[in-house]
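Deadline looming. Please check this record:
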Amino acid sequence: MCERLGVPDVVYDRSCEIFRDIHAVGIKGRKPSAVNAACIFIACRQEKIPRTFKEITPVAQDTNKVEIWRVFNAIKDKLKISQAKLGVISTTSFVERWSSTLKLGPEAKKAAKEIATIACPNASHSRKWDTRSHISVTAAALLLTVRAGGEDLNPAEVARRTGVAVGTIKDVYEELRAEAVSLVPGWFVEPAELQRRLGLSGAPGSAAG
């Protein structure tokens, strides 16, 4: 499964350790494939090479995303794995990987990292998208970056590459688009040109129509 997922040996070794630990304390009524997938998910988080449930599910057999998520929570509880031990999800790691699959150039990739970092959900802010997951915001940030750069990109293609639902990407994109002037770095595209490309009008940060 690790080989199919394309993760390094350190993730495989760590997932094996988690697998041994959870079987030492016991876990009943769970499909082996879901247990394996959940161990890999945790190992990816701990080794700072995160993968989403949607990315891990296809490499597992006879299970689904919901079951893997449930087993993940069961393992986390039984082994007393705190949020600190899981680490903070880094938007940069997702941007780096997804930018490559979407074939973004160096400047667009750099801009996407800045946009995703600024837009990352923050409890101290009161922006519309702050209730969204980091992964959803990152996917929408990639769409915003490409369109801000003057090129078109279908949300369905972003969904295919990231595993985030098309509807979610569209919704978060519109939320980010409305604040694009404060999110997109000026070195990537000038504010006036940005407004023209994204169909914005009026004061910076306000959406047309």
About this structure: Residues 203-209 have pLDDT under 50 and may be disordered.
